[in-house]
Design brief:
- The complex is a heterodimer.
- By secondary structure, chain A is α/β, with parallel strands linked by helices.
- Chain A is built from three helices and seven strands.
- Chain A has one domain: 2-Layer Sandwich (Beta Polymerase, domain 2), CATH 3.30.460.
- In chain A, about 20% of the residues lie in helices and about 25% in strands.
- Chain A has a five-stranded mixed beta sheet with strand order 1-2-5-4-3, with helices on one face. A two-stranded parallel sheet of chain A has the order 6-7.
- Chain B is α/β, with parallel strands linked by helices.
- Chain B has a domain of about 140 residues: Rossmann fold (3-Layer(aba) Sandwich), CATH 3.40.50.
- Classes of the chains: A alpha/beta, B alpha/beta.
């Protein structure tokens, strides 16, 4: 264990708290990027505030499954994109969603890059992005049943084409 | 009695006789001309030779195996010397090297490409994925377990991915196979039903992917609930600004 003090806050987190955007600070990752946890009801105003703060680029949106029977998580990695940027500020926002009702507002109307990435999270985890313009499966066949990247997903006993030729 | 050449009564001259007795220094003219200018072969061999010397592969690559296949096209391995010219359309190709994992979503496209190729056509299954599913063969929900479940394969190349030399070896083996084919057997090995189909009684529905992705009305304006929420979203602000400009203009 290192002797470095446990970081309890970050600049962007302070700013958000000052302006009344309630969230939980989850610490820094190994690259020093602050991770913020937000309630899904406040995601849109929260994300708009981050956009106003200068996070103009959604670098990555993805989902993950916290465990069997546990929450599904929708993650947004934001960065300040500018000319000649030198180590620009980054932030990661996580929204924890109950497995039985994984609905979250879409950030498509803030960052257009969320379009396909949210479709992929929907395809793989079944997270429903409300307000997304075209929430359809992107990788799996259109008629696929189930969300294959969930931890409790069971691969269906698919038909092996044994005597094709 | 001495046999003198002068005394022997022959029909041809002394010069001609000496030519017959000693081995001439020059090559006999007639046979050399023959072997240089006349080739004896069968139509079968000629046909096979022409076919195996101009195997045009389809440019088909679905993952990492194609990197090795692309190296074959380059000057270091240079597969043009086998007469292989990569073709981008199945209509002109007579060989398909399935380089890379084939997923179930890709499978119908692969079968269609194979159907569209001109007869006689050949398939080389390249790499572990197209032979058995490779590392995806145990619990993947999308990988086709071997491309031979979809189309008939002539040569398998093991490896993950195989080196370009292995592809070269496979092509030489395929050339041997083509060289051994005969007209007489062709009717016997003519395959009538070359790919797997399943009878089903499912209802055909309209495709959800229509290609009108960018023109969708849901993409141009945000949903009403979002407009009513009053959050100053960047997209809404941009629309407002446009309307302002229109009013002023």
């Amino acid at each position: 264990m290192s002797d470095a003090p446990v970081v309890s806050t970050a600049k962007v987190s302070e700013w958000l708290k000052e302006n009344g955007f309630d969230h939980e600070f989850l610490g820094l990752d190994h690259q020093g990027v602050p991770i913020l946890k937000v309630q899904r009801e406040y995601l849109l105003p929260f994300a708009t505030a981050l956009y106003a703060y200068g996070f103009n680029y959604l670098m990555c949106q993805c989902g993950y499954d916290a465990g069997p029977g546990d929450d599904l998580v929708s993650m947004y990695h934001l960065i300040k994109l500018s000319d000649n940027a030198d180590r620009p500020e980054e932030v990661r926002v996580k929204v924890f969603l109950p497995r039985h009702d994984p609905r979250v507002p879409s950030v498509y109307w803030i960052w257009r890059t969320a379009d396909w990435q949210e479709r992929e999270s929907y395809d793989m985890y079944g997270i429903i992005y409300e307000g997304h313009p075209n929430l359809k499966r992107i990788l799996m066949p259109e008629d696929w049943v189930g969300y294959p990247m969930r931890k409790d997903y069971i691969t269906p006993d698919f038909y092996e084409l044994q005597d094709a030729y | 009695m001495v046999l003198k050449a002068e005394n022997v009564g022959l029909d041809f001259s002394i010069d001609e006789q000496t030519q017959r007795l000693i081995n001439p220094i020059e090559h006999p003219q007639i046979t050399q001309d023959l072997s240089n200018n006349v080739v004896l072969t069968t139509l079968n061999d000629l046909y096979n030779w022409a076919r195996m010397s101009s195997l045009w592969p389809l440019l088909y690559g679905t993952s990492c195996c194609f990197i090795e296949f692309a190296a074959m096209i380059g000057s270091r391995f240079d597969f043009d010397r086998f007469g292989l010219l990569p073709r981008s359309t199945p209509r002109q190709a007579d060989l398909i090297i399935t380089a890379g994992t084939v997923t179930m979503k890709m499978a119908p496209a692969l079968v269609r490409l194979y159907e569209q190729m001109a007869e006689p056509k050949y398939v080389i299954a390249m790499g572990a994925c197209t032979i058995t599913g490779g590392m995806f063969s145990t619990d993947s929900y999308t990988t086709v377990r071997g491309v031979d479940k979809l189309i008939p394969v002539d040569v398998y190349i093991p490896g993950c991915p195989p080196r370009p030399e292995a592809i070269m070896d496979a092509i030489i083996k395929l050339r041997k196979k083509i060289g051994a084919e005969g007209f007489a057997q062709r009717a016997q090995i003519q395959r009538t039903h070359r790919y797997h189909t399943v009878r089903h009684e499912m209802k055909v529905v309209d495709p959800i992917l229509t290609g009108k992705y960018l023109e969708a009305p849901s993409r141009s304006t945000p949903p009403k609930e979002l407009m009513a929420a009053g959050i100053p979203l960047p997209a809404l602000e941009a629309i407002k600004k446009e309307q302002m400009v229109e009013v002023e203009g």
